[in-house]
Each structure stands twice: as structure tokens, then as C-alpha cells.
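Bit of a strange request maybe. I'm writing a small parser for C-alpha cell strings and I need a real example to test against, not something I typed by hand. Could someone generate the C-alpha cells for this chain?
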Amino acid sequence: MGAEFMHTVAEISKACHKGKVRAAVLTGAGKAFSAGGDTAWLMRRHDDEPERNSHIMRDFYRSFLCIRDLPVPIIAAINGHAIGAGLCLAMACDVRVVALSAKLGLTFVSLGIHPGMACTHFLPRLVGPQAAKKLLLTADTVTGSEALELGLVSEATEGDDVFVRACMLAARIAENSPVAVQQTVKTLRMAEEEHLDHALQREADAQALCYASNDLTEGILANKERRTPSFKGAT
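Reply from user aminoacidic:
Good idea to test on real output. This should exercise your parser:
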């Protein structure tokens, strides 16, 4: 999926530079925005070397965070559940509109994994350090309405209206000067991305260490069997 996503972003970028796109909306293809990562892929990381896994994770992050290279505002239309990497991708967007009933969560530690894909960087900037720590360390999920209260999203609405509302917001943005809008987006992202590369490297290294632990296999197996994991904290 990463390579396909990068190709799509590249095509949109070309259209942006031709002046054909002034704002972009990202949404899920089904009932969920994104239900989380591929657990089989995660299990394969357990059998790989930590140093190699660190490089793999940096490439993985890049394959999705490349969306921030688009020069136009990106609106995430979170039409359903957004868990793990899916929510990370939504946080990488400029604005988020969510379904009231959607469940949002960064449930990494419940699987025995360190959070990744810049969520430890973006989340505190969106909801504040205390709320971010609570969400990341407990692996709790929140509803769309709760996400609005936290400041994680800018708008919460009924599920069927999410994409429409996001498109309306994109159209409103597109009425403004494209030069001014794009320069404003660039300035805002510059502030958001200070120390981002350092955070990504830290996440990649920490995830690589977690992949080597038996807690990873226990977390994924427990999730599959719908039971509470029994973590030992040993490799």
C-alpha cells in the first residue's frame, strides 16, 4: 500500500503544481478510515534484525508522511474508525473532520509496540502533553465527539456527512488566493516539523527494539484472540 500511496501523492502533486488542485481531501475507502496496521507484517518484523527494522520503519513512515509534501492544505475526512497508523496519517494532515461515532486510538502499547509514524511528535502539539501521554500510555480509544473536545479534530459530524463537510471546507479554502494559502500551509508546517526528523528516528529505533521482544508476539496474538495480553517485558 505504501508504494501505491506514494504514487498517488506524486500524481496529486503534479496537478497541484499545474494549478489544478487547491486543496485535497483524504478519506477511507470503506466504513473505516483505517483499522490499523497489518499484523502479519508486524510479526515478520519480530524475525528481523533491529538495525534493519529501524531502516524499514523510516521507509514505512516516509511512504505515508510524504502526503505532507503536497503544497496544498490536506483535510482528513475520518469517516470511521482510525486506529494506529491510520490515525497517525490523519494527524499528518492539516485539518481533520471526524464522524461522531468513530473510534480513534493510538493503541500501539497494547500490542507491545512503541508508537510510530510521528504520533509522538504530532499528538502533543494537537491535544497537549498531558492528554497525549494519557492516550499513548493507556492505549485508550476516544469517540469522534471526544476527539473534538480534546482538540484532535476541528469538526465532528454524522458519519454520512463527514466527506461532504470535508469537501465543503476544501471548497471554502479554494476560494482564497492559492499563493497565499500555499505559503501559509508551508509556514504552519515548518513550525510543526521542527525536530520531526529526530522524533521519527527515535520512534523507528524504539519500534525496532520492541519488535525483538516476545511482548510483540503476545500482544498481536492476544488481539487476534480477543483477550487481555499477558506481557512479560522480556525479549
